[in-house]
């Protein structure tokens, strides 16, 4: 009986949520050891050898941050690093979350990360996260629910399908949830790279072209065909970077970093092979391509596409999305994955815009329903209570029955009379 209870408790063990936020939602800190290497920081009173928050960005520090947050490619090791003279870091993993849709859950870990250098510079964090999930499982018997929002969904994709093997995932991870997911990238990453600008978060400069995370968010090749059309010439997503190289828009560092990530872009968005949920919106149009027809300025030199030139004429190709990210990646995964629940709000309401949908009661309910009414887990708290209560009652009944049987046998023995010749009478 005790074995039955152990098995029941093992099956109905609680879950721990590990949450990975999106781009720009983890703070970044710089420790400068040699200020002379960063000319745009010299007059900003940066303390030497002191951990200083540089993101969220302080107004007036844009050019300094562009130097500090740049990414360097090391030829000898085929790896990346921060520039000499500065160390960039973020917060440690912590047991809490301020996200609205996570308010109902107490057992939540937030995973801050360097969203500039993701994923090429993320291996130490992946190792730390893996160890924490294992430790949590061994201590609490609680499997992980791994959740990613936007770029965080790209992080979860890489962690579950590339960094970890399938056996490990099945042992330690209960399920995965992708919110406004960027696991298939976006066409606008091409524009950000070409223009060295991500104005929606206030980031400008050459270092945009050196950000591994931008290339990890490059549009997925199998899903992105004919995304750039210049008269009769059509470019698939797999051909876009070559165009930038041909136009001398990217430098050698950008080329090296792109090629380190290119293989990630060539595969279909892989099934994590665990129960998953994808929560997204396809009701707000988002740019997913460019079409140029009979524009002499662009035809003479396609680089004019990426300059703020009023004489350049082109049409934005629009697709369904959340106003920022295309829905095509979510739609593909919803059709291709084996065990996935999908919620598409299909709403033109700006409450379901990319960054805003996480603050809606509708998304919060979808999230809670998936966690609490997981179709693979019938062991809700009520069912658990009934099972354990029934098991205890069964044990009590067995004990009572055993006692009554023993008493009955004892009385029966006391009534027996044995004669000298060995015969028995009752």
UniProtKB/TrEMBL annotation:
MF GO annotations: O-acyltransferase activity
Recorded coiled-coil stretches: none
Protein name: Lecithin:cholesterol acyltransferase family protein
InterPro entries: AB_hydrolase_fold, LACT/PDAT_acylTrfase
Keyword Membrane (UniProt): yes
Annotated transmembrane regions: 382-406
Record's keyword terms, sorted: Membrane, Transmembrane, Transmembrane helix
GO biological process: lipid metabolic process
């Amino acid at each position: 009986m005790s074995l039955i209870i152990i098995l029941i408790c093992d099956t109905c063990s609680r879950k721990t949520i590990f949450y990975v936020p999106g781009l720009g939602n983890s703070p970044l800190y710089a420790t400068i050891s040699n200020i002379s290497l960063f000319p745009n920081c010299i007059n900003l009173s940066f303390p030497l050898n002191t951990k200083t928050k540089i993101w969220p960005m302080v107004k007036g520090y844009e050019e300094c941050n562009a130097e500090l947050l740049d990414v360097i490619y090391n030829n000898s090791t085929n790896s990346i690093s921060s520039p000499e003279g500065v160390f960039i870091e973020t917060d440690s993993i912590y047991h809490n979350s301020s996200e609205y849709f996570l308010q109902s859950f107490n057992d939540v870990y937030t995973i801050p990360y360097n969203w500039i250098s993701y994923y090429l510079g993320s291996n130490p964090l992946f190792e730390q996260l893996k160890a924490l999930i294992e430790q949590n499982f061994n201590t609490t018997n609680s499997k992980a629910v791994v959740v990613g929002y936007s770029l965080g969904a790209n992080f979860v994709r890489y962690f579950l399908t590339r960094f970890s093997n399938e056996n490990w995932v099945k042992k330690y991870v209960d399920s995965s949830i992708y919110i406004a997911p960027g696991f298939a990238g976006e066409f606008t990453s091409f524009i950000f790279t070409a223009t060295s600008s991500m104005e929606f978060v206030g980031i400008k400069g050459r270092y945009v072209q050196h950000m591994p995370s931008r290339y990890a968010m490059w549009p997925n090749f199998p899903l992105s065909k004919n995304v750039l059309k210049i008269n009769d010439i059509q470019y698939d997503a797999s051909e876009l970077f070559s165009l930038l190289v041909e136009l001398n828009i990217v430098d050698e560092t950008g080329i090296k970093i792109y090629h380190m990530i290119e293989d990630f872009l060539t595969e279909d968005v892989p099934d994590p092979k665990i129960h998953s949920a994808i929560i997204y919106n396809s009701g707000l149009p988002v740019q997913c391509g460019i079409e140029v027809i009979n524009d002499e300025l662009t035809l003479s030199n396609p680089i004019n596409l990426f300059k703020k030139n009023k004489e350049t004429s082109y049409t934005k190709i629009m697709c369904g999305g959340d106003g920022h990210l295309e829905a095509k990646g979510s739609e593909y995964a919803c059709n291709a994955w084996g065990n996935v629940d999908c919620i598409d709000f299909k709403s033109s309401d700006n409450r379901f815009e990319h960054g805003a949908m996480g603050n809606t009661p509708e998304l919060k309910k979808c999230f809670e329903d998936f966690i609490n009414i997981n179709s693979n887990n019938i062991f809700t708290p009520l069912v658990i209570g009934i099972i354990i209560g029934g098991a205890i009652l069964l044990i009590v009944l067995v004990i009572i029955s055993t006692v009554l049987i023993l008493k009955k046998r004892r009385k029966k023995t006391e009534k027996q009379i044995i004669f000298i010749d060995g015969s028995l009478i009752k």
